[in-house]
Amino acid sequence: MRGDYPGALPVWRGLELDQDDLLRAELIQQLMCHGRVDGRRVAASHGIDFDREFAAEIESLRQLVDDGLAHIEDGVVSATRPGRPLLRLIAMCFDRYLKAPQQPARYSKAI
Question: What domain range is 45 assigned to?
């Protein structure tokens, strides 16, 4: 491969990430690493309105908030103490490639 394409990386496969992918990756990384994310701050750095762009995701978090696993205030999404072991469930709400955000939470999948 190196002889065919000098200076190119020897990569045959991969995924091209768009701006939305990068934004969501940052949100998910903050949640998974710190247990919280200031969505408005992250969105501002990407030039979008967090509340408008992620209205469906915030709505899908309502069940976790009602169950006492997550907390949302002023654009900050955080895991509560009981929700820390289930951070993946909170982060999954921001993953656009999971096609069923409207389904009820499935806690056993995250454990």
Answer: 19-96
